[in-house]
Amino acid sequence: MKAAWFERFGSANDVIRMGEIDRPSVGHGEVLVRLYASGTNPSDTKKRAGAFPDLLAGGMIIPNSDGAGVIEAVGPGVMHSRIGERVWVYQAQYGRRFGTAAEYVAIDGKRAAPLPGNVDFSVGACMGIPAMTAHRCVHADGPVQGQLVLVTGGAGRVGYYAIQWAKLAGAMVIATASNDATRNDCLAAGADYVISHREPEWHKALLAVTDGRKVDRVIDVDFGANLSSVLEVIRIGGTVATYSSSAAEPALPFRKMMFMDMTLRMVIVYAMPESAKEHAINDIGDALAHGLLTHRIAQRYPLEHFAESNNAIEKGGLNGCVVVEIN
């Protein structure tokens, strides 16, 4: 099969290799998926750059955790009726070496979720890290119906879905954006109000919009950079769910946070409880089947140009998912 892989850490142009390797065999409880799309996410590029020094201990890595395709074979313990099923794949390159940047992947059957026939494979490749992370951030700490939810970086890959999940759950949503284009993206996703986080005191603009009402929940794209402003707009007893931080070890104003009785939740798909993953998969399947979510594909690359997908992620400035198409 055709595949992209790396055997050492470094820049994508230097270390990504392309070629033919053996198709994986399917084991107990696994399905063999013929992939037609692979999603490239920041976590994938960080792995390739060396964020996890032991990653290559077992040998070369086929990158990317997210993808979509069709089940062509099943292993013992999996119903044969799943053969021919359209699926989206998540967590393919977590705790294992072989991800979705290839024509085939063999993976635990529960990591291959049904993809409705009305949904493009490229969209399916966006459901893993972006849509599941957003779902967890919105739903992990109880219902948001009637609540005021702040989504920082609402035009980002996760933020865009977080706005939609919160609106579908009955929340009022305020998003932050950096320019007119991202503001329009947030509004298109369903945000009720959008404020600019380029303003040094954007928290004041938020409270002006809400007539002083503070938010119940924050879905945050950059914990270290946004914390001081978030603490000005979140209510006593509120919750911050964050999935990223430009500062790896941000300082916490512990006393202030303690007296706010606030909850801080860190979210990453890999560590989500299985019950949360099942909740997300069920809601994603229902939303896809009924056309309740909108999607943005920022860039598409053929597998042969896989390194370019990494470069696009690392360059930044993209509003939407980066997808590698596999023919």
Question: Can you characterise this structure?
Answer:
Keywords: NADP. This is NADPH:quinone reductase. GO terms for molecular function: oxidoreductase activity. Residues 11-324 form the Enoyl reductase (ER) domain. InterPro entries: ADH-like_C, ADH-like_N, ER, GroES-like_sf, NAD(P)-bd_dom_sf, Zinc-ADH_QOR/CCCR. It is a single chain. By secondary structure, this protein is of the alpha/beta class. The chain folds into 2 domains: 2-126 and 295-325, Medium-chain alcohol dehydrogenases, catalytic domain (Quinone Oxidoreductase, Chain A, domain 1), CATH 3.90.180.10; 130-270, 3-Layer(aba) Sandwich (Rossmann fold). Helix content is 31%, strand content 26%. The strands form 3 sheets. Strands 3, 4, 5, 6, 7, 14 and 15 form a 7-stranded mixed β-sheet that branches. Helix 4 packs across helix 5 and helix 4 packs across helix 10. It is globular and about 60 Å long. The N and C termini lie close together (11 Å). The model has no long low-confidence stretch (mean pLDDT 97).
